[in-house]
Every structure is written in structure tokens, then in C-alpha cells.
Specification:
Length: 266
């Protein structure tokens, strides 16, 4: 039997430790759960017409390990758009969300908000929103469900207070459809976003890129433009808040997880 000196054993142990620290991480290692499945810890809510963290009508709640948006305590919707913000701002990351639409829309909810929600990225802080402000200045990744008959894509792009560059041109249209298929009924849908600072943003569903654009930026036509413009005058949005919407239709979120890419997407 071959014998090793203590120095050799220590060298081999140290080498193995160094290799374990420098070895490539498995593809999914490093994902963090923004929603813990238990409560709304690390999230803040903001509703139109109400101060920060007044959860009007108990709209955002956790039941059955789901983050739910519900309207059973409303007499009517009355324009109370809501958003729930994660505590940390991010720049370069991947985010994966599992959602489904359920039940009936709140009384007097707007027609366009039927089976409508969204993931807001590169957004302003909840604290900086005006009391009467409906939507945070952000890039909205629109989540839509079908009515059982008509075609209606999900992962569309909307731009409250912002613009992007699409097909090499500044794109100022408020909402633009993706190329996704329609998701009817109360089925779970898994979507993913790749967000690379102020460069490329990709919308992905069923493993397919259904929308891609670049250079998210503040829109100088928006009334919040000067308030949110940084001191250096750079209107490109490199980072911001992540929030989920409450727009009058009940929706469940089963998973909200994020992979932080640090300073780049390589």
C-alpha cells in the first residue's frame, strides 16, 4: 500500500478545495426565491389613492402557498390599481414567474384589464410614487390570459413613462404585442425574462424568445421625467424595482425567482 506524507495529504486536500471553489456552478445554482411561499416579507405595496403599504381590501395576500391578488372585499374596482414591489433593485438578472388567472374580474374593472397583470421591471421605487399615480414608471412585461375564443398573446411590452429601442428604432408606442401563443383558462404559465441592464431585454415563454428590445429609457413626455432623471442627465434605465400588478382581475403567483447576474449577462 502506497503511503503519503502529511505534506502531500495537505497539498491534495488544499488542491481539491480550490478546485471545488473555482469549478463552474450548476446552471440553476444561485436562483433566489423572491416570494417565500409564506408571507409578504420583503415586499411593499402601493395602491392608487393610498399611501405606501396600505394593502387596500387585503388585495395582496398569501394563501395555500400562493401569492394571490383578490377583490372579494371590493364593492367596485374604482381605479385602485395596485403594485407589490420587491425590496431590492436589480440591474442584470434573469427572473422566472409562474402565474395563472382565476375567477371573475372585480366589478367595474376596465375592459382591457380582463385577465391582465404584469411584471414591472427597471421601475421607480414605491416610495417615489405619487399618492394618485396609477402605475410606476417602468418597463411593463404584460401578462394576459385568453377569453376561451380569441387570440391574445402574453409577455407583451408596455411602457408607462418609458421608451425602448425596437428593431433599431426608438419605440414610443405604449403597448406592443409579442409573438407568443394564447393561454386560455386557469392554467399555470411559466415565463422568464433576461434583463441586461440598459442593453438587451428578452421575454421568454415555453423556452422561446417572443420579444426582444434594447435601451430602456425614461420618456421625456412623462410628468415624472424630471423627478426621476439622474443628476448626470442619462435617461437610460440600467436598474430598478421589480413589481407585480393588481389591475382588477384575480391572479395567482406560484413562483417568483431570480438569478442575479451581477454587473453583466455573460
Amino acid at each position: 500500500m502506497k503511503r503519503f506524507s502529511i505534506k502531500t495529504v495537505l497539498f491534495l486536500v488544499a488542491t481539491a478545495f480550490i478546485m471545488s471553489c473555482t469549478a463552474p456552478k450548476p446552471k440553476n445554482e444561485g436562483w433566489i426565491q423572491l416570494f417565500n411561499g409564506k408571507d409578504l416579507t420583503d415586499w411593499n405595496v402601493k395602491f392608487t389613492g393610498f399611501p405606501l403599504n396600505e394593502n387596500f381590501g387585503n388585495t395582496f395576500r398569501v394563501e395555500d402557498s400562493l401569492l394571490k391578488v383578490r377583490y372579494d372585499q371590493y364593492e367596485k374596482f374604482d381605479g385602485h390599481f395596485g403594485h407589490i414591489f420587491y425590496k431590492t433593485q436589480y440591474s442584470h438578472y434573469k427572473i422566472r414567474v409562474e402565474y395563472r388567472f382565476v375567477g371573475d374580474q372585480a366589478p367595474e374593472g376596465p375592459g382591457w384589464a380582463f385577465r391582465n397583470s404584469g411584471i414591472m421591471i427597471h421601475g421607480q421605487s414605491a416610495e417615489s410614487m405619487e399618492v394618485t399615480q396609477d402605475f410606476p414608471v417602468s418597463i411593463e412585461v404584460q401578462l394576459l390570459g385568453g377569453n376561451g375564443t380569441d387570440e391574445r398573446s402574453t409577455l407583451n411590452l408596455c411602457t408607462p413613462g418609458t421608451n425602448v429601442v425596437l428593431n433599431d428604432s426608438l419605440w414610443t408606442q405604449h403597448c406592443t404585442n409579442s409573438t407568443s401563443k394564447t393561454y386560455h383558462g386557469d392554467r399555470w404559465v411559466t415565463v422568464e425574462l433576461e434583463v441586461c441592464g440598459d442593453s438587451i431585454i428578452k421575454h421568454i415563454v415555453d423556452g422561446q424568445i417572443v420579444m426582444e428590445y434594447a435601451k430602456p429609457q425614461l420618456d421625456d413626455r412623462d410628468p415624472n421625467y424630471l423627478k426621476l432623471l439622474p443628476a448626470d442627465g442619462n435617461k437610460l434605465l440600467k436598474k430598478g424595482t421589480i413589481s407585480l400588478q393588481a389591475e382588477s382581475h384575480p391572479v395567482d403567483f406560484r413562483k417568483v425567482e431570480l438569478l442575479n447576474m451581477g454587473d453583466d449577462c455573460d
